[in-house]
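User: quick one, fold this
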Amino acid sequence: MDQAIVTTDNLTFRYADDAENGAAVFDGFHWQVARGDAWAIIGPSGCGKSTLLKLIAGLQQPTAGTVLVDGAPVPRPRATTGLILQNHGLLPWATVWENAALGLLIGRFYRNKEGERGLPRPYPVDRPVGDVEPWLARLGIAHLREMYPSQISGGQQQRVAIARTLSLQPNLLLMDEPFRA
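Assistant:
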């Protein structure tokens, strides 16, 4: 696969409290995902599905081996990776619109950091927070824009998290049980 967007090579991961003696979540794991491919990772609770996504997203680091996205190591989250979390990651004090726009606001921080570290900026111009509006409409939650997470259903909360992520127009989309509700 010469067009891999995700590559793991000899990936080993143990949680910090088990780093020396505990069982590895991954041990010598090799995997490639070609650009444009869609994968589903299926397994029982606790087998490492969410951990793999966090490693690819740069939220956790391998104990050994490498994780490459677009051919580069992932020492921290990338502005061009979208991650939809199991628990939706919504701020309880923010409205539906504020939660959906959060990715665009935080994305500006990462885009600036990438430019400062000599890495290419994935977007030449910051995208306006108004770009979230079409996603709210497309996902059928625009009418909820002034409500808070505690005032909407679990499925609606999932759609807010999906809108937040898709408004970023990521080149890599990672979803951790986004459709369970």
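User: anything notable?
Assistant: Residues 115-125 have pLDDT under 50 and may be disordered.
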